Amino acid sequence: MSTKSYKLLIVESPSKAKTIGKYLGNEYIVKASVGHVRDLPKSNKQAIDIPGGFIPFYEISKGKADIVHEIDSLAKKASEVLLATDPDREGEAIAWHIAEACGLKNPKRVTYHEITKAAIEEAIAHPRKIDQNLRKAQEARRVLDRLVGYDLSGLIWKKVRYGLSAGRVQSPALRIIMEREREIRAFIPEAYWALTAKVKTMKGSELELSCTEEPRDENIVKNILKIGRANQWVVREVKESEVSRTPKAPFITSTLQQAGSSRFGFAPSRTMGIAQKLYEKGFITYMRTDSTTLSKDATTAILAEITKRYGATSAEARVFKTKSKNAQEAHEAIRPTDMGKDDLGINPEEKKLYRLIWARTIASQMIDAKLARTTILANVRDFSIPNFSVTGSRVIMPGWLSADPDSRGEDVELPKVTEGESLMLLSLDDEAKFTEPPPRYSEAGLVKELEKRDIGRPSTYASIIKTILDRGYVIKDGKALKPTDTGDVVSSFLEEHFANYISDTFTAEMENKLDDIANGEREYVKTLKEFYGPFLKEVKSKDKIDKLTTLGDADPKHKCPKCNGSMIIKLARTGKFLSCKNYPECVGARMIDGTELAGPRDTGELCPKCEKANLVERDGRFGRFIACGSYPKCKFIKKDEAAALLNHTGVPCPACKKGFMTERKGRFGIFYSCTGYPDCKNAIKAKPTGNFCTYPKLDDSACGSLMMLGTKTIPERCSLKTCPNHNPHKLEKAK
């Protein structure tokens, strides 16, 4: 290829580069940066010149030197360089970093919201310069998050445990979860009775009705049962009304994450990963957006498709108001690029999410659905007990439900009955229940709450949830996010000492200030200065606070198993436990419920490394092990080769590729870990089968994790919890 014979277009992902390359032909070379090429160094002192005006010092990201070198070489020989990274704040920053790292003098910035030939050609035809305001806003966010994270996390390391973190957005999210948890703890359940009557109509249809009252008095319940079972039942009233249901707006990032979670059980990060693949293949528009806007061309295509499939009378052009005041209206909602295709994707997950997006988009431009809502009230003839009722609906005119029937919910269609009609009582039952506390947040629920409180932005919701899970602040209990003891302690500390900085108002105001920087309405240095001075002063003032690992006195009934002294509640990596008040002189300990912890057992063997203390047998994360009794001064660990051979599975460890998976017994039962422990800490919860998971990851490579034994119905499953093949039965259902 001769000098200056091509144009260079730079995108973020190889998959996107491949798709766009097909559209542009030989005139262009399309190269992927593979995300960010530069970032702040790990050391905060080197990263930001605070006195100089919060000037960040960037370095080439690990593993990106070769990519930068290649882009630089290609750029020097190109007649034109176009930066076509994502059309958002993050993408603008990546474009700028590429330009700075490669010394590009006059690069052109092109943006598009869908990867189609027409959209790419239109973008190239109308280039612009890098938006410095937008780039500055992203830089302010990055610097702000680093400053908060570095200073506040450092304080938490001192007061709780090394490796934990706090953040400008993650901490308010954790606080929201903890607020709900305290509501749950404070909730006092009350007993009540639910009464259910099964009846048969004159035409033989069966109905199940619920009592409109929930008695708290057992005597009242007995009276209802006595009268209800002894008398003839009749239809007291039939209430019918016609209701209209308006379609929802097309998806934005937050609503797509919520729908992915509620419909399919996808974590927000999984939903966004699947959406990213659909976008890069050119199937949908850009998936990070808070705008419900549809372009004129898109609306025209949607209305045409509705007319073709459901008739012209079903179409109705609609404009939805975007809730976010800082939404970029130039962006579109998430929609298919070709409305004529309702089944795209290479695997079941992609197909499900694409169909969901297609249905929501089509439905958004259709007429209202009309339903007949019916409520049947029944009682005994003398009307001496509370009414029993059932509500259902039937579709009069499907409207937008024709395109998105799953959005109807689980409404039942009731049989036709008339007032005064006799009913045959089949059964009348009662069930004692207790009022329940408010539910814990699911991932979808937390995203909705973050959006409601204006905390974070669409692109950050998935990473926020991932961070608090990775830090061990919350765990997933089914679909619910449950705070751990560590999460409780960290959140309580931040709420007590940094309430202003993790409040809804502060977080939302800071997001608005960042948006103002993006809009050119606020100065970068002024914004950071206003925040950081008071914040740093506040952090330094808390330096003398006692460590937070001691959580108060234990119940007096729990005495130290060794010295019979008083005990205190302590926080460890695994959660709360009871420790002797005289520690370290006395090492007596109990579980939080009072059960005695056995503690280390002296083997009588001298440590071969330090030769100062005997080896002791301890309980560890991966079961019992033998180590030096003078730990942490001496960190010698003895490999129990005999035990390893006895329980050897013969399956090689995929992590270190040196050891083998062996059966061990831990606090929570049997598990399997590498014989190379503690050098290799790979562990799984069930016996490995010897096979490796072939499920495709987001980059299309195989998962590669060990497969392990499952159940009778699921003989084998992936050992990696985050892999969809960990629950293969759900994948089968999806097919």
Characterise the protein shown here.
The structure is a single chain. With 735 residues, the protein is an alpha+beta fold. Among the domains are: 124 residues, Rossmann fold; 151 residues, Orthogonal Bundle (Topoisomerase I, domain 2), CATH 1.10.460.10; 121 residues, Distorted Sandwich (Topoisomerase I, domain 3); 115 residues, Orthogonal Bundle (Topoisomerase I, domain 4). Helices cover 33% and strands 23% of the residues. The chain is built from 19 helices and 31 strands. Strands 9-10-13-12-11-14 form a 6-stranded antiparallel beta barrel. A 4-stranded parallel β-sheet has the order 2-1-7-8, sandwiched between helices. A hairpin with a 2-residue loop joins strand 22 and strand 23. Helix 4 packs across helix 6 and helix 9 packs antiparallel against helix 13. The longest helix is centred in the N-terminal third of the chain and has 28 residues. The mean pLDDT is 87.
Note the overall shape. Answer: globular
Distance between the termini: 47 Å
- The helix/strand class is alpha+beta
Q: Radius of gyration, Cα only, in angstroms?
A: 31 Å
Trace the largest sheet across and list its strands: 9-10-13-12-11-14
Classify the helix fraction into a percent range: 25-40%
Query: What low-confidence regions span 5 or more consecutive residues with pLDDT below 50?
Result: none
CATH architecture descriptor text of the domain at 140-186 and 438-541? Orthogonal Bundle
CATH topology of the domain at 140-186 and 438-541: Topoisomerase I, domain 2
What fraction of the residues are assigned to beta strands by DSSP? 15-25%
CATH superfamily of the domain at 140-186 and 438-541: Topoisomerase I, domain 2
The CATH class of the domain at 140-186 and 438-541 is identified as Mainly Alpha
Largest sheet geometry? 6 strands, antiparallel, barrel
> How many DSSP E strands?
31
- Whole-number average pLDDT? 87
Number of helices: 19
